[in-house]
Specification:
This protein is α+β, with helices and mostly antiparallel strands. It has 23 helices and 26 strands. A 5-stranded antiparallel sheet has the order 7-6-14-13-12, sandwiched between helices. A hairpin with a 2-residue loop joins strand 22 (750-755) and strand 23. Helix 3 (86-96) packs across helix 9 (203-211) and helix 5 crosses helix 7 (166-176). The protein is elongated and about 135 Å long.
């Protein structure tokens, strides 16, 4: 600005020199004064014109008000809108400044009339101010009235007209005019007095608001009812006389009631409003991607279930709904409000970090499919497992022996998931999670260990729902032929209405075929037992969904996705307090299904044919078929061709009756029958046959046949290279012991136990024994009557407690 002033001044000196004006010439000083006035006039208006704080306003995708927060000066003052409703323009102009569109900011006729009236009545009857002058007065915070002040406002009004258009000036007035109390601006007044936006107001309502700024303290709604009514009706009559409205409209407008006390503003997605303020949107009008109707409906659902769950002292719930195709956030419920309860309702549980429980299992399942490490129905071990000092347990505290991979995911079994993670690698899985959008898992992989898959990391509902939506979007875009690596963008968006381009990556972290198989497995999850009518809902729409429960029953998760929508739900206590039976299936899943009932989920994903292949699969084990398998043709992810052959089927030599196994040393080879047999390890078999009565164990050897050395027994506990801690007994004269267990294919077999080559006892089914080894490294050996044996190395940790 200083450079411009110097530039203009130099031009002025050149002009004076050209016209031979000297310092002693009167015209020189007159010209200087004129130049100074022009410079002042040019820069007299501040930028911005109004330096006031504004309310933060959150709107949905269609401009509907969702929530608002009062300005820093405790005024309800909404930011400038794009336009002013036609009714308000007309009503205001005929009440305040009928010739607004004809004068340059000052109306000499009005000024003369006001002067004549004031002199005649010897008091201020009319100010003669135009709307432009009133805008100037508002920008100067209503200074004291005087002739000098009025003259100054006239000059600024002229300058205002040169900088802004008439509609812009009208907009400035509508946004900053006082409407009584702490209500400033048309938008705030419309919501506070009529609980709806200005463009939905009637002529009677708009006329009321048009007369309020003239004397807001005098005619504040709820007080001086008769005075306000007279002012409004006079304006309505004038609108009729001017031909703006007809007689019927005028009479109906005058019959409308005046507003009472200010009403509460809508409070939908309040936590998103606070989040936006923290992200730099304070004092702005935020155009979000939320859907008002859906937000209102889902918020009511969350409130309903939250009130019911509060009986079990479970007081908080959060829901997030995304448009799968675009990533746009449609619903944002950060928490619920419980009356007369200290429920930490202001905590935003959409972005708060919580233990993930089992909610990350689908990502590991899809990753293993993407690499061909498993096939959709490959059998996984579900047996007692101890890896180092970590011994995961299934939620139901049982073991299935072996279970198909898709069922392991559908049943959310912990042990198969941990064993898969051990095979895949914790560090590798952590990097995959980062690619899918989990930014909170930042600590070294050793910090999480294998517990990463069972809730060892903290994630937010914000990122979890986004990651599920990203998987679905990647699969959907692959199917419609528009797939690009950027379609797997982990980020969703909520501000603005344009779809973000996303950062392109070298490749999608998970194959489309693997995602399709994973989602197909997630269709088979058990629905919540207490949710009435879910069977009917399930028959209408397919949903790939997963639940999760954190250790100590502190967090309940449920996330479901379809080609159109992705819904994420968290239920628990913001304080982290656990509650009995707080599980994802019982508490979060019913909310999720209720939300999906409000959505039209549409068709299911099409199989990504170009990312899948057909191979021969073992019908019983789910692995790639070997020569002893009964093979079926099955469509699997494209990397399924790398899957290993079935490790469970082998050839068994039987006698002619097929009742006994035989060897060439005791039976004529010509009479042998070679049969394929499904064979599990002793531990797998022990648990598997408890749930599968049709399982056929290996036949015994025929009497007289020497059985070859084979794996007929196994140690369940301890696992190899296990570190074991024995708690100290509360009684000084007692010694705590640990229990070792083993299994044998022959239920009548006797087993002999040795620790460090010292015999400690024998067992018959069940094969369990109590031991109390001293701290240090040890070896346990278990042997049967035929000399078959198995051994494990383990270490007892020193108990330093008193």
């Amino acid at each position: 600005m200083k450079k411009k002033i110097v530039q203009y001044f130099n031009r002025f000196l050149v002009w004076c020199k050209t016209h031979k004006f000297t310092y002693r010439h009167p015209r020189f000083w007159i010209s200087c004064v004129a130049f100074a006035f022009l410079v002042w006039f040019y820069f007299c208006l501040p930028k911005p014109l109004f330096s006031v704080p504004y309310s933060t306003v959150l709107q949905d995708r269609n401009g509907v008000l969702l929530s608002a927060r009062i300005a820093a000066d405790n005024q309800w003052r909404f930011p400038l809108n794009d336009s002013v409703p036609h009714k308000f323009k007309v009503a205001l102009r005929y009440f305040e400044d009928e010739y607004f569109y004809r004068h340059p900011g000052i109306n000499p006729v009005s000024m003369a009339r006001a002067l004549r009236q004031n002199v005649k009545h010897k008091r201020t009857i009319s100010g003669g101010s135009t709307l432009s002058m009133q805008v100037i007065r508002l920008s100067r915070y209503n200074p004291s009235r005087s002739m000098l002040s009025k003259f100054y406002e006239m000059l600024l009004a002229l300058r205002l007209e040169l900088r802004y258009s008439k509609d812009e000036i009208m907009n400035l007035y509508a946004a900053h005019a006082p409407f009584g109390g702490n209500v400033v601006g048309l938008d705030a007044a419309s919501w506070r007095y009529y609980n709806r936006p200005p463009n939905m107001l009637s002529w009677g309502e708009m006329a009321t608001l048009a007369v309020l700024p003239n004397a807001p303290a005098l005619v504040f709604p709820g007080k001086n009812h008769e005075l306000l009514l007279k002012k409004r009706n006079r304006l309505i009559d004038k609108l009729q006389v001017k031909g703006v409205i007809d007689h019927a409209t005028a009479e109906l407008a005058k019959m409308e009631d005046l507003p009472g006390k200010p009403q509460e503003l809508p409070q939908f997605a309040h936590h998103l409003l606070v989040k936006a303020q923290k992200e730099g949107f304070d004092g702005q009008r935020i155009h979000s991607t939320l859907d008002y109707t859906l937000q209102k409906s889902v918020q009511a659902i969350a409130q309903k279930y939250g009130s019911y769950y509060a009986e079990n002292l479970i007081q908080n719930c959060a829901v997030l709904v995304l448009d799968t195709q675009t990533g746009a956030v449609l619903v944002y419920v950060g928490n619920i409000t419980l009356r007369n309860k200290q429920s930490n309702q202001f905590v935003d549980n959409v972005v708060s970090l919580r233990s993930s429980g089992s909610i990350l299992k689908p990502f590991l399942h899809a990753a293993m499919l993407s690499e061909g490490a498993i096939l959709p129905h490959s059998l996984l071990s579900d047996i007692p497992t101890r890896i180092g000092g970590y011994a995961p347990k299934n939620f139901e505290k049982n073991f299935l022996g072996v279970v198909p991979a898709n069922q392991a995911l559908a049943l959310s079994l912990n042990i198969p998931a941990v064993r898969l993670l051990q095979e895949y690698g914790v560090d590798k899985f952590q990097q995959l999670l980062k690619k899918t959008g989990f930014s909170s898992i930042t600590k070294p992989a050793d910090h999480y260990g294998l517990s990463l898959i069972l809730g060892g990391a903290e994630v937010s509902l914000w990122e979890t729902t986004s990651a599920y939506a990203s998987m679905a979007r990647s699969l959907a875009s692959f199917n419609n032929g528009s797939y690009q690596s950027s379609d797997y963008r982990p980020a969703h968006y909520i501000y603005g209405t344009k779809i973000p381009s996303g950062e392109k990556t070298e490749s999608a972290p998970l194959d489309a075929g693997a995602l399709y198989s994973t989602f197909s497995a997630m269709l088979e999850l058990k629905r919540p037992w207490g949710e009435l009518g879910w069977e009917h809902f399930s028959s209408r729409y397919k949903i790939a969904w997963k639940t999760g429960t954190s250790f100590g029953f502190r967090d309940a998760w449920a996330v479901g996705t379809t080609p159109r929508y992705t819904v994420g739900v968290w239920v628990g206590n913001s304080t982290g307090e656990g509650r009995p039976a707080l599980t994802g299936i019982s508490y979060a899943a019913p909310v999720m299904f209720e939300v999906f009932k409000q959505l039209q989920s549409g068709a299911w994903f099409e199989p990504p044919q170009n990312d899948m292949t057909t191979i021969a699969v073992c019908s019983e084990s789910g692995f790639r078929a070997g020569k002893y398998c009964t093979a079926v043709q099955q469509q699997v992810p494209k990397m399924g061709v790398r899957a290993k052959e079935c490790p469970f089927h082998r050839a068994v030599f039987l006698d002619s009756t097929r009742q006994y196994r035989v060897t060439g040393a005791c039976y004529a080879p010509a009479n042998m029958v070679i049969a394929p047999w499904f064979v599990l390890s002793p531990t797998q078999e022990f648990f598997y046959k408890q749930h599968n009565p049709n399982y056929k164990p290996l036949p015994p050897y025929m009497e007289g046949c020497q059985a070859p050395k084979e794996q007929v027994l196994d140690i369940i506990d301890p696992d190899n290279n296990t570190a074991i801690f024995i708690p100290r007994s509360e009684k000084e004269d007692e010694e705590n012991k640990i229990i070792f267990s083993a299994v044998h294919r022959n239920p009548k077999a006797m087993l002999f136990w040795h620790i460090d080559n010292e015999f400690i006892g024998s067992t018959q089914s069940p094969h369990t024994i109590e031991v109390a080894p001293p701290p240090g490294k040890h070896t346990v050996i278990v042997m049967d009557e035929n000399g078959n044996s198995v051994q494990r190395w383990f270490r007892i940790l020193e108990n330093k407690g008193k």
